[in-house]
Amino acid sequence: MNTEEKAPLAYNVEQLNLWYADNHALQDISMEIPEKSVTAIIGPSGCGKSTFIKTLNRMTEMNPIVKTNGSIKYRENEIFAKDFSVEYLRTKVGMVFQNPNPFPKSIYENVIYGPKIHGIKDKKTLDEIVEKSLKKAAIWDETKDRLKENAFGLSGGQQQRLCIARCLAIEPDIILMDEPTSALDPISTLKIEELIQELKKDYTIVIVTHNMQQAARISDNTAFFLNGVIVEYDQTDKIFSSPAKKETEDYISGRFG
Amino acid sequence: MKFADTTVSNERYEENTQRLSKRHIWNKAFKGICFGAMAFSILMLIVLLIRILTQGIGFLSWDLIVNFASRNAEDAGMLAALAGTIWLMVVAAPLSFVLGVGTAVYMEEYAPVNRFTKLLQTNISNLAGVPSVVFGLLGLTIFNRLLGLGASVLAGGLTLSLLVLPIIVVASREAINAVPTDVKQASYAMGATKWQTIFRIVIPTSLPGILTGTILALSRAIGETAPILVIGALTYVASTPSDLFSNFTAMPVQIYDWTGRPQEEFQNIAAAGIIIILLMLFFMNSIAVFIRTKFQKRF
């Protein structure tokens, strides 16, 4: 990838391979993800893009049939190293899922879940975290009068922004988003996209999307995955205006996928 | 030709259309069969209730609750049995809850999926179907004889908790299994450990299901006669248990004893005793329903 500016790397992935039992789902993936930018991962269903993003915070390990090798360095630290704590990794790397998944608790309880499990008990600090996180996730105005209400009372789009707020509450360095708008209507999608633009000033964002326009609108760099390999990874403008590979061009022009 | 293609003449479904009336008959018939099944169960329940109420309601009295058993039916009460049953529950409820939920959490959240654990899971479900008298023999062998607890409240409570354990495990596993993976993943993705996720997300979310299962299992234990008799509960006790090692009797045992006597008066107070035990069961089941509706989370 020909980035002229040498931004510090948030992630450096080298020769990553992943198997679901015998299915070789990720093959020799190597990718540098610069900090404070939006990196989009696109590709047809089953190409390994969701698997890849879940490897970045080691969520794939929850599936016992998964085997990985290769190297992922999060800010110089090898995340597969034996002495590297997965809990530490996941405090630094937040995740927003495809379907909004708030806890069956109040809005307030949802936001303070992360800080509480990491030992913050002081009521005043927690109150501040709630306000700050909800404001950052652009949902404070809609929720400030109903913090004690159950999060399930919110609309789908609001729930997803609450999930983003919940993720921001632990002050992560990186936010992984796995098709965060695929379950949402266009207006909620727009709000989340605006939010992503705002968040990239402070956070590194890696987003999986099957919506190519979305990738074009919000990302700085785009990687195109196909059948478990990276076909092309470059600046988003370049990928969408003059892709180097024929597969990429076919995909973004809608000829398959 | 084009026109013909768009007209509605679909030979393939002609025959099916003719069968429609037959399908409608089956549609109604099946509803009728299900209604019949339901009506039969309800009818049996009503017959049972009427039978017990007509015989026993006249003999319900305060004396029945505050008196000890006696040779004279007029003086006889079930205080010892009532107290014994409560003591049994005090022993069995916390023990079976802790062991049952612990087992369920382990099996759902920790146990690796392999043939051995699958075999174990199937067998726990089978255990729920083992006749209660077998658990009585187990209690007699282990608690009464081997541990030397005798025919004490403690031995009885331990036996009952073994009896209901499989039921609680099965109910708790179902409740824990119903916690969406999504929500658990959200917790792990924020750096929560397994213990934190289980304690803060899995158990609170599944608690209504777990408690309902536990209460229903315990209300089954209250009515059990066989295991209590087998471990050697007495039928005549003139005192309430003073500690865990006291001899005891329980309500179903007392009722069983009374129904076995030739005098009609005893039959009548047995019916009254059954009313009391039914009220207790009704009360416990109401708590279960209350917990279910009050605390149920929706997803």
CATH H-level superfamily of the largest domain in chain B: MetI-like
Number of domain units of chain A:
1
Report the major sheet of chain A: 6 strands, mixed
CATH class of chain A: Alpha Beta
Subcellular location (chain B): Cell membrane
GO cellular component, one term (chain B): plasma membrane
Domain ABC transmembrane type-1 (chain B): 82-287
Family (chain B): Belongs to the binding-protein-dependent transport system permease family. CysTW subfamily.
Structural notes for this entry:
- The complex is a heterodimer of chains A (about 260) and B (about 300).
- With about 260 residues, chain A is α/β, with parallel strands linked by helices.
- Chain A has helices at about 50-55, 85-90, 105-115, 125-135, 140-145, 155-170, 185-200, 210-220, 235-240, 245-250, and strands at about 10-20, 25-35, 40, 65-75, 75-80, 95, 175-180, 205-210, 220-225, 230-235.
- Chain A has one domain (about 10-250): Rossmann fold (3-Layer(aba) Sandwich), CATH 3.40.50.
- In chain A, the strands form two sheets. A six-stranded mixed beta sheet of chain A has the order 6-7-8-3-9-10, with helices on both faces. A four-stranded antiparallel beta sheet of chain A has the order 2-1-4-5, with helices on one face.
- The mean pLDDT of chain A is about 90.
- Chain B folds into two domains: about 15-60; about 60-295, Orthogonal Bundle (MetI-like fold), CATH 1.10.3720.
- Helix content of chain B is about 75%, strand content about 0%.
- In chain B, helix 3 (about 20-55) crosses helix 13 (about 265-295), helix 5 runs antiparallel to helix 10 and helix 9 runs antiparallel to helix 10 (about 195-220).
- The termini of chain B are far apart.
- The model of chain B has no long low-confidence stretch (mean pLDDT about 90).
- The interface of A and B includes residues 64, 95, 101, 104 and 167 of A.
- Chain B: Belongs to the binding-protein-dependent transport system permease family. CysTW subfamily.
- Chain B: It holds the Pfam family BPD_transp_1.
- Chain B: This is Phosphate transport system permease protein PstA.
- Chain B: It is found in: Cell membrane.
- Chain B: One of its GO terms (cellular component) is plasma membrane.
